[in-house]
Amino acid sequence: MPIHVLLIEDDDDLRESLATYLTGAGFAVRAAANAEDLAAEMTRHPADIVVLDINLPGADGFDAAIEVRQRAGTGIVMLTGRSRQADRLHGLSLGADHYMVKPADPAELEMVIRNLYGRIKGLSLPAPDAEAWILDTKRWILASPGGVGVPLSAAERHLLERLLQQPGVPVPRIELIAPGSRQDADSTGRALDVLVFRLRRKVELACDRPLPLLSARGIGYVFAGTALIRHE
Asked: The OmpR/PhoB-type domain covers which part of the protein (predicted)?
C-alpha cells in the first residue's frame, strides 16, 4: 500500500514538480495551494504525511500544523523558505516532525517521508544479514548487507522484486518493466537501461558498495548476489 501524502504549497511550479516527483517515487499524492479546507480534505482523504509550506494564503503553515497534530498517526514535514531558528523552533514546538528549508532536494524529502512514516507506523528495517540484500516490499526499501536502507520508486521496486525472486537467474527485459510503463520495444529497452543505471548509482552512493545487478547478454538482467524478500 502506498504512503499517502498531502502536499500544501502555494507556489504552483514547486507544488507541481514535487507532486510529480513524489508520485513517481510511489507515493499517493494530493496537492493543495492553501490550508483553508485542511480539516475537510483530511476527513475525505486521510493522509499519512502532510508536507506544509508556512507562507500560505489565509491560514498559514503554523495554523495548519496545529490542525494536523490533532489527528493521531499523521506526520508533519514543514518545507519552507523561512530559515530563521525562531521559525524552526516554533514549527517544531507545534508538533512538526521535520523542518526543511527550501530549496530542498526532492530525493531528501522522499527519504524524510519514508523514514517518518516508518517511525509513525512502528516499522523497522529488517535485521541486517551478513551477506544478503533484503527487499522490504511493504516499505519500498532495499537494505544492503550492512543494513543501510535505500528508498525505492515504484519502478525500482518492481524491477528488484522480479529479480530477487530468483537470484542468479537471468530475467527477460520485458518482465522487468512495470506493465503500465511498457511501450514499444525500443523505448521500453532504453527506459529499462536508464532505470538500472540510476538504481545502481543511487545504491552505491547510499551504501558505499556496488549493487550486484548485472547485464545478461541477449536476455536482460540478473541479480548476482544473495537476496531475501520481506513482505511484512
From this structure: 125-225
How far apart CA 135 and CA 147 sit, in angstroms, is 11
Domain boundaries, the chain: 4-120, 133-230
pLDDT of residue 168: 86
CA-based diameter of the chain, in Å? 59
Instruction: Map grid coordinates 523514514 to a residue.
Output: 115
Q: What global pTM score does this model have?
A: 0.55
Paired with 8 in beta bridges are: 32, 52
For every residue of 190-209, DSSP letters joined together read HHHHHHHHHHHHHHHHHHSS
**pLDDT at 36 exceeding the cut of 90:** no
Q: CA-CA distance, 51 to 71, in Å (whole number)?
A: 15
Q: How many CB atoms lie within 10 A of CB 154?
A: 17
Locate 190 and state its grid cell: 532504453
Fold assignment, 133-230? Arc Repressor Mutant, subunit A (1.10.10)
Classify strands 98-101 and 220-223 as parallel, antiparallel or unpaired.
Answer: unpaired
> What is 4-120's CATH topology?
Rossmann fold (3.40.50)
Average pLDDT value for residue range 165-176? 87
- Closest by CA to 134, choosing from 145, 118, 119, 122, is 145
List, for residues 218-232, the tens digit of each pLDDT value.
Answer: 889 999 888 888 876
